[in-house]
């Protein structure tokens, strides 16, 4: 057994002179190594349990090594990106995007894309007028407090006088009035959502200025989804309103990428009239021609078609689109929500079957894309932990992080180039920042990911010495491990360092021994746990035992690691998420960009 363990730790293959008996003994361990080395097939097979030698008692020990020679995938620097829903025009939050606190939070997640899209994309009309008091979307002064509206106007005038990045410091009373207004509008928005009937929404030039200012100040690249439901009698796309928006944006020299529509496979349920994939492909071709006529956007990026979950009819829609416009778009996009937010329970976020549902979708999308445009980049846009706006104390709690972090790991390991999180700030409960502008657990998880994880994805090799598990309780399912080169932007670590991130869904702690190239290296631990008495329902988190909170409106806290001595076994507490930077590995895959 010591010889077997020696081979596993070294990563060396068994020599040809191995006796048959030794090969037979090693077979279960090798099966586990293969299982963990191929994360893209995680949902397809069951790992073989490894019997613990009779002389070893007690806890489970996982042996972990990483292939440091070359990456298995390279994803975008903007891999983790953000979304804002057009509902922020309706409920008034768009007027507060100039808040110093919001900009500070968004800057923490840069570089990233900021996608402005959602259910109300296809009910959005652009009007090139500047008077914010008369033309802003949503309720007017008579609906609410006149002096609240006047405060908004005065804030706009003050912003206009600023040069460069326009930042505001809104008085507390102004924010309190906005929260009251948003709470009333929340009921209206929910009613529209559940009835699937949406009212038209007006985006003024002033509103577009505020949106672009927020993206630009935060270091985010804006992606704007145009209304695809403006149709001519022959069902072709009516581009007149979009052209007005494009011309205004070009006059301001706004650097924007573009999309057309949101979940076009669902248009029949919205307006009683469908648009098939080939027709949408023609519409995208028309949009590309429009962009080429405007000098500012002649080389702008175009993404689509942003379909929903790839069921049979949706796959047929995508095939029709790809035949016509596969070469027109710069990346193919779709969206995914894991759970119906109206019936979610905290235990849902711990189900391994739920974590694996995304794998099948990825394969379906990749099959179609590679049939028509091999090598075309694929994005997952509009991903959320729950649908229907989410559920308070669930989709905005620590528990939702298990799904979010696993989504990031799974998508990166399977070569999805970008994932867009719905939403940065929203009227529901899927957001990263709440309406007090306080970061929620998934924000801190995303911030750690941005600070520590680079675009190069590495293969992992794992062997487990464990007691025979009960049927269906394979250790692989509940212990998720991913590895990347450490972010080049993090100057605390030299190039060649490696970051592991680990999800432990077990209700017991797990021990991991670093082997091979990782053996006897100093490790920095970033352990994220819920803070306070609410446990998995908590909306606050602690890092290595210290609660995380903003220092002030312009300053994020320092994310301090806990150094572990070289060679120390990693102890992963139950129901936690953690990052481990293995220092000075000098990994060949990670030395150069």
Automatic annotation (TrEMBL):
One of its GO terms (molecular function) is hydrolase activity, acting on glycosyl bonds. Pfam families: Glyco_hydro_79n. Coiled coil: none annotated. One of its GO terms (biological process) is extracellular matrix organization. GO terms for cellular component: extracellular matrix; extracellular space; membrane. InterPro entries: GH, Glyco_hydro_79. It comes from the Eukaryota. Belongs to the glycosyl hydrolase 79 family. This is HPSE2 protein.
């Amino acid at each position: 057994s010591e010889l077997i363990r020696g081979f596993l730790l070294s990563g060396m293959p068994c020599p040809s002179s191995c006796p048959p008996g030794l090969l037979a003994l090693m077979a279960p361990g090798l099966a586990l190594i293969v299982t963990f080395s191929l994360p893209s097939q995680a949902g397809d097979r069951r790992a073989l349990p490894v019997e613990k030698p009779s002389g070893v008692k007690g806890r489970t020990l996982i042996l972990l090594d990483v292939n440091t020679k070359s990456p298995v995938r390279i994803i975008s620097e903007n891999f983790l990106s953000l979304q804002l829903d057009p509902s922020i025009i309706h409920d008034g939050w768009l007027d507060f995007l100039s808040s110093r606190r919001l900009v500070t939070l968004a800057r923490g997640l840069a570089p990233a894309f900021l996608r402005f899209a959602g259910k109300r994309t296809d009910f959005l009309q652009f009007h090139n007028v500047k008077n914010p008091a008369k033309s802003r979307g949503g309720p007017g002064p008579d609906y609410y407090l006149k002096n609240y509206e006047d405060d908004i106007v005065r804030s706009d005038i003050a912003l206009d006088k600023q040069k460069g990045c326009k930042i505001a410091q809104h008085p507390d009373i102004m924010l309190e009035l906005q929260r009251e207004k948003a709470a009333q509008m929340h009921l209206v928005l929910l009613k529209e959502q559940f009835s699937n009937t949406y009212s038209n929404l007006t985006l003024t030039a002033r509103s577009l200025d505020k949106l672009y200012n927020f993206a630009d100040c935060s270091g985010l690249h804006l992606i704007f989804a145009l209304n695809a439901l403006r149709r001519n009698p022959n069902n072709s796309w009516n581009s007149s309103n979009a052209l007005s928006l494009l011309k205004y944006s070009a006059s301001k020299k706004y650097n924007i990428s573009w999309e057309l529509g949101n979940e076009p496979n669902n248009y029949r349920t919205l307006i009683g009239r469908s648009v098939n994939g080939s027709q949408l492909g023609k519409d995208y071709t028309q949009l590309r021609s429009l962009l080429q006529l405007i000098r500012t956007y002649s080389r702008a990026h175009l993404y689509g078609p942003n379909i929903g979950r790839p069921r049979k009819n949706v796959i047929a829609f995508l095939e029709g689109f790809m035949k016509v416009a596969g070469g027109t778009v710069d990346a193919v996009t779709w969206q995914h929500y894991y759970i119906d937010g109206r019936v979610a329970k905290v235990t849902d976020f711990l189900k391994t079957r739920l974590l694996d549902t995304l794998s099948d979708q990825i394969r379906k999308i990749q099959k179609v894309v590679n049939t028509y445009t091999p090598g075309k980049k694929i994005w997952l846009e509009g991903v959320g932990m729950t649908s229907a706006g989410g559920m308070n104390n669930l989709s905005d709690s620590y528990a939702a992080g298990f799904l979010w972090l696993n989504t990031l790991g799974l998508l990166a390991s399977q070569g999805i180039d970008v994932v867009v999180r719905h939403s940065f700030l929203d009227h529901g409960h899927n957001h990263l920042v709440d309406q007090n502008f306080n970061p929620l657990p998934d924000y801190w998880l995303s911030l750690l990911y941005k600070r520590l994880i680079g675009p190069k994805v590495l293969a992992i090799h794992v062997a487990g010495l464990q007691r025979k598990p009960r049927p269906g309780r394979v250790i692989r399912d509940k212990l998720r491990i991913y590895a990347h080169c450490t972010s080049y932007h993090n100057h605390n670590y030299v190039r060649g360092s490696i970051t592991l991130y680990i999800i432990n869904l077990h209700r017991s702690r797990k021990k991991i021994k670093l082997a091979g190239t990782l053996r006897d290296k100093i490790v920095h631990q970033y352990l994220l746990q819920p803070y306070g008495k609410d446990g998995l329902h908590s909306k606050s988190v602690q890092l290595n035992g210290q609660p995380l909170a903003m220092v002030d409106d312009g300053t994020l806290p320092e994310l301090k690691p806990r150094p572990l001595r070289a060679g120390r076994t990693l102890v992963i507490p139950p129901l936690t998420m953690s990052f481990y930077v293995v220092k000075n590995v000098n990994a060949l895959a990670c030395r150069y960009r």
